[in-house]
Fold this sequence. Notes:
The complex is a heterodimer of chains A (333) and B (345).
Chain A: H1 4-7, H2 12-22, H3 34-42, H4 46-68, H5 112-147, H6 149-163, H7 167-186, H8 188-202, H9 206-219, H10 223-230, H11 235-243, H12 248-271, H13 283-290, H14 298-326
Chain B: H1 2-29, H2 44-53, H3 60-85, H4 114-149, H5 154-168, H6 171-185, H7 202-239, H8 242-249, H9 254-292, H10 297-306, H11 310-338
Helix pairs in contact in B: 1-11, 4-5, 4-7, 4-9, 5-7, 6-7, 6-9, 7-9, 9-10, 9-11, 10-11
Amino acid sequence: MTDQPLVSGPDPEIDEQAYGALQDKGPIAPPRSQWYDVWNQFKHHKGAMFGGFFLIFITLFVLIGPYIWTLDAQKLDIRAKDMRPIWTLIWDSEAKAAWAHPFGTDQLGRDLLANLIKGGRASMAVGWAAMILALLIGTFVGVVAGYFRRADFWLMRFTDLVLSLPILPLLLVAVTLFRQPLRANFGPETGMFILIVGVVGITSWMQTARIVRGDILALKEREFILAARSIGTKNSKIIRRHLLPNVISPITVSATLGLATAIITESALSFLGVGFPSDFPTWGKLLADAVQRMEQFPERVLLPGIAISLTVLSVNYLGDGLRDALDPRIRGR
Amino acid sequence: MITFAIRRLILSIPTLLFISLVIFLLLQLAPGDPMAQVPLTVPPEVKEKMRIALGLGEPLYVQYWKWMVQFFWVEPMVFIDWLTRDSTLLGWLPDTSLYDGRLRMLSWQTRGPVMDLVVQSMPQTIWVVGMAYVVGVLIALPIGIYSAYRHYSVFDQTGTFITMIGFSIPPFFTGPLLIVIFAVQLGWLPSNYNTVHEVTNWDTFVYQLKQMVLPVMVLALQTTAQISRYMRSAMLDNLGQDYVRTARAKGLREGVVVMVHVLRNSMIPVVTVIALGIPAIFGGAIITENVFGVNGIGYQLLIALFANDIPTVMTLTFIFAILIVLFNLIADVLYGVLDPRIRYD
C-alpha cells in the first residue's frame, strides 16, 4: 500500500530517486571489528600513543641493547673510572669523557650505558612478571567470587583484609627475612627475583579482583550466559568462553597500573637496600648507589631516575588511553 | 548512622587481629635468627638460655598471646598513667597508676620499651607527613576545581600533564633531585632533617620551617597529583548535572553555582579519598624519611628490620595497620554523614 504513489507518480524522475534510495547498494565500508573501534579511539589520545611508543622503545632498548652495546656491565676498568657523559664536552672541553663510554662510568669504571640496559632488563622483567602474577591471582579470585555465590562472601572479606594490610612495611619485612634461604636455594639473582616478584604479586592483586568481580556479577545475569547455560555448557566453559573475553578490558587497564606499581615498588626496595645483590644492577639500585656522590656526578642519579619515571609515566598514559578507548560510552567522542 | 559506625568499629577488631596474626606468623616463620649477631665463642647452651630469656623458647601461641597482652593491656595502662601524670592535657586528673611493673614490650636493639621509641619518633612523622598532606590537599583542591571548570583549556591540559608526572616520579628520585637543586646548587635549604632541633626563638623557627620544606614538597607532590585528579573528575561529573543548569537559570552568580552548589556535591567522594590516602602516605613516608634522614617511625622500622629487632618491627608494622583500618573506618563513616542518600543498613 505504501508503494502505491510510487507506481502511479506523475514525475518519473522522482520515481527513479525514490527507487534508488530504496535499493540496497551493499555496505559502504567493510564492517568494523570492536578492536578497530578501540584502536580508532586510542590513536586520538596523544599521551597514550606516546606512552605506547615509549614502552615499545624501552622494551626493545633493554632486549636488543646488550647485542648492540656489547660492553659487559660488570666489567671493572679502574683506569676509566669516574668518566663523565659525552655531552659534558659541550661546555667543558677538559672533562674526562670519551665515546668509548657515552654515558660515563662509575667509581669502579663500570660503563653506565651497559648498566642502564642491564638494570632495565631486571626492572622490566620484575615489573612484567609481578604484574602477570598479580593479574592471574586477581582474575582468579574475581571470577570465582563473582561467579560462585557461595565463595563470594568469604573471598571478598579476604580481599578486604588483604587491602588493609600495610603493604610497604610488610614487603620490607618479607624481603629482608626471606632473603637468605631463597638465595641459598636458587642462587642470589634468581632467588631475589622470585622473592620480589612473589611478594609484589601477592600484595597487589586486590584491585583487579574487585573490578573483575563487579563485572562478572553484572555479566552473569545477561541473556547470553543464560543461553549458554540452557544448552548445557559447563561452568568452566562459560567462564573461559563467555565471561573472560568480556572482562578483558578492565583487566588490561589494571594490568598497566600494575606494571607501573611493580616497577616503582621494585625500585623502592632496591633504593632502600633490600633488593637485588649489590653487584646486580637495577634502575633503583643504580640510583641508590649514585646518591652518595650526586653533587659531582648528577647524571648517575638522573639517568636511572629518568628511565624509571619515563617508563612509569608512559605506562600510566597508556593505561589512561586504554581506559578511554575500551569504554564504549566514551568511544567516538 | 551511629549503629553503622559502632558495627564497623566492632568489625574492625577481627580485622586487626587477623592482621596482627599475619605479621606475627610472617616474622616467626622467617628464618632470620636474632642470635646471629652473637659471637661464635658463646657456647650453644648459653645461646639457648639467651633465646629463652628473649621469650623465644615458648610455643607460638604463647608468644602471640604474650605479645597481645603487652600491646593491648600493658601498654595502654602505661599510656593512661602517663596521660594522667605527665601530660598537660589530662594532667589535672588524679594519677591512675594502673601499671603494676609487668614486663613491657622491649626492643632488642635498645633494651628499652618499644613504645618509648614510638612516642619519640611519632611526632617527627606526624609533623612532616601531616604538614605535607595538608599542603598537598590545599594545593590540589583549587587546581582540580579550576581545571574541571575550564575543561580542555590550556590550564587543564598542563594540570593533567603535571599531575601525571607527579604520579609517575617516585619519591626516591624527587628527593635526591630536590636536594641537588635546592640544597647543593642554590644552597637555600638544608638537605638533612635535624631531628634534635628545638624551636626557641624566631630564628630557630625559621630554620625548622626551612628544613621541613624539602620533605614536605616531596610528599606533597604525590598527594597533590592524586587528590587533584579526583577533585577534577568529581567536579566534571557534577558540572554536567541538571541542578547546575537550574541554578544558573534562576540567576545565581557563577561563583555561587560553582563554589557552593557544585563544590559541595563534589567534595563528598573527595573527602573520602582524602581520608583513605592518609595511611598510604604514612607508608610512603618510609622512603622520604630515609632520603632526608627524618627520625620518624618509617626510619625506625627500617633500622629495626636491619637489626633483626623483631618486637619493634612487629609493633611498628601493626601501628601502620591500625592507621589503615582506622582511616578506612573514618572514610566510610564520613561518606555516610556527608551524603544523606547513602543508607547503610
